[in-house]
Amino acid sequence: NPLDKRIEAARKALGLPSQPTFDNQGDAPATTTEPGLSSTVMPQLDTNQDGFVSREEYMRDHQRGATVGDIGTQRYMQRYHRFDSRFRAADRDRDGRLSPDEIDAMQGRRF
C-alpha cells in the first residue's frame, strides 16, 4: 500500500520505530470445535457404558407408560414410532446402535 510506505518513511525520518505489523495468520488462536451432542447425551443414555446407545437404551429413555384405553394406547404407539424413526435416521451404519459420531452427525436435529 503506497500510504503505508509513506507513513513508514516519515516514521523513519523522525527516528521513530517502525509500525508494528499484524500477522493475522500467526496470531490467530487455534480454533477448537465445540463438543457435540454426544458429550451430553452419551452419559445419560449409555446405561451399560459400552460407548454406544442401543435401540433399547434409546427407547427406554424416551418412552412413557401407556395410559389405559384406546387413546392412550394409540398415543403410546405414535410416540414409539416417532422415536423409532428418529433412531433409524440417526443409525447410519444400520448396526442397531448409535455411536458418538452418529449422534454428533445429527447436528442439533431433534434427538
Q: Secondary-structure map with pairings?
A:
Layout (H helix, E strand, L loop, with lengths): L1 H12 L24 H8 L7 E2 H8 L7 H21 L6 E2 L1 H6 L6
Walk me through what this model shows.
The chain is built from five helices and two strands, in the order ααβααβα. The model has no long low-confidence stretch (mean pLDDT 82). With 111 residues, the chain is mainly α. It has a two-stranded antiparallel sheet. Helix 3 packs across helix 4.
Main features:
111 residues, 50% helix
Low-confidence stretches: none
Order of helices and strands: HHEHHEH
Q: What is the CA-based Rg, rounded? A: 28 Å
Strand content: under 5%
Summarize the biggest pleated sheet. Answer: 2 strands, antiparallel
Structure in a nutshell:
With 111 residues, the chain is mostly helical.
